[in-house]
């Protein structure tokens, strides 16, 4: 088993929509959409990493967390992919510009960051 470098969580609602965020960027950088995710710090567990990412970006708590699998990102690092649900209103963190609930059929209309499509495909194929 490869060492997990980062964790990503796909937030879903009761209608199987997923929550995507647009992070702050510099002026000339493209504005891309992401799932919630973070690099693992030190000896932090994958679940703690997911909880920290949700708390930092959405000021919320994630429930029903379930590991879906792993993907290799463009940096050749292993990313653990989870799915989870929120039970309270989303309040965007300081590094997030916008957040949006997106239906599965509309995913292709969004300019996703590299690797994000693979994570969503993993979610859809479970």
From TrEMBL:
This is NUDIX domain-containing protein. It comes from Clostridium sartagoforme. The lineage of its organism: Bacteria, Bacillati, Bacillota, Clostridia, Eubacteriales.
């Amino acid at each position: 088993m490869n060492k997990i470098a980062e964790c990503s969580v796909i937030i879903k609602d009761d209608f199987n929509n997923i929550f995507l965020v647009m992070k702050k960027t510099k002026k000339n950088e493209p504005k891309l959409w992401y799932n919630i995710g973070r690099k693992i710090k030190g000896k932090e567990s994958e679940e703690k990493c997911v909880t920290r990412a949700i708390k930092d970006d959405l000021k919320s708590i994630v429930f029903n967390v379930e590991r879906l699998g792993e993907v290799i990102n463009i940096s050749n690092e292993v990313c653990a992919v989870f799915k989870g649900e929120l039970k309270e209103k989303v309040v965007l963190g300081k590094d997030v510009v916008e957040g949006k609930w997106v239906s599965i059929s509309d995913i292709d209309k969004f300019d996703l960051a590299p690797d994000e499509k693979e994570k969503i495909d993993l979610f859809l194929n479970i």
